């Protein structure tokens, strides 16, 4: 019987893990033909943890320069370090690493906690909520506006742009390109405005940073703005949603976490492993690469399946079970290598605090399974709707 798996086909979105398992065991280097291809007529999927890890560290063989989204012309998108290789990637990455300091991240915690509490207060007496639209979407957007010193009154526009550009199957559709263009114009004007008056936000810090004695160009700064806007919202929205769903499906684990808050450091890593918010990102093969007796030709696109690597039986015992007692030595939720997610500390903080506030206020909750609506599988494990029910909590 022939094997078929298409990460863009909704039939696989609810539970892709049995197909990941089949790929790891029998089709570790899997070629998929792209219907209505725009750039690449086919792409390869790499599913085993070791192969994914090796590819992430070998940027000379697996390049990001042609983009990290499947069958997408990266030249149509704003330039960011996502689509760069060294040396310029490393130079620009160092700028963000210098300004996104641990103290800046830590100072966000009370702000995130208050935002999460305000959101829960709005629905806790009702006994039900859609935690995707009423909870998870607001927290990363609020955090992004704080980091970049953007007006909260425009938060709906920022969220709309994010969902339009990264929340669907076609990242260069007419609607997506319009959103990319509007954002690009917004960031370029923001750079002009910040040059007139420096504050202590990330944008101003990047604007006045130097690389080898030279300031960044306006285009590079606006690219950073786009990166901060896009990456800080979409993945964390889904990270929070998927963690809530997972804890709803494993009530014993949720209660254990509620009763033993000292478990949070390891429990958070297990939540991130179990439902990785980024299930896969693309690379381009820069030379012929042979893995598991299969040769990926130079110039072909490759999808590195982080979600499959995070469920690899050679790394984790019973990987399809959420076990908050599990000791996690590594996972691929934030990638690895030169493109390891710089915003991981912010995302971890937002997820932990959000779930803590839910546990403190609601205690138990149940997932309304037939109400869950998945938006995509790659690059992010998208959640468009995630209804839960719980005992109403009176003010």
CATH superfamily: Cytochrome P450
And the CATH topology? Answer: Cytochrome p450
**CATH top level?**
Mainly Alpha
Return the structural class.
alpha+beta
By CATH, the architecture is named: Orthogonal Bundle
Q: What form results from the Cα inertia axes? A: globular
Alpha carbon gap, first and last residue: 58 Å
Mean pLDDT: 93
Q: How many domains, in number, for the residues?
A: 1
Number of separate helices: 15
SSE layout and pairing:
Elements: H1 17-26, E1 29-33, E2 42-46, H2 49-57, E3 62-63, H3 88-99, H4 102-106, H5 109-121, E4 128-130, H6 132-136, H7 138-148, H8 155-166, H9 174-196, H10 202-207, E5 210-211, E6 214-215, H11 218-249, H12 251-259, H13 264-274, E7 281-285, E8 289-291, E9 294-296, E10 301-304, H14 306-309, H15 344-362, E11 366-367, E12 373-374, E13 383-385, E14 387-389
Helix pairs in contact: 5-7, 5-15, 7-11, 8-9, 8-11, 9-11, 11-15
Q: What would your notes on this structure say?
A:
The chain has helices spanning 17-26, 49-57, 88-99, 102-106, 109-121, 132-136, 138-148, 155-166, 174-196, 202-207, 218-249, 251-259, 264-274, 306-309, 344-362; strands at residues 29-33, 42-46, 62-63, 128-130, 210-211, 214-215, 281-285, 289-291, 294-296, 301-304, 366-367, 373-374, 383-385, 387-389. The chain is α+β, with helices and mostly antiparallel strands. The protein has one domain (10-389): Cytochrome p450 (Orthogonal Bundle). The strands form 5 sheets. Strands 1-2-10-7-3 form a 5-stranded mixed β-sheet, covered by helices on one side. Strands 4-14-11 form a 3-stranded antiparallel β-sheet. A two-stranded antiparallel ribbon has the order 5-6. The chain is globular.
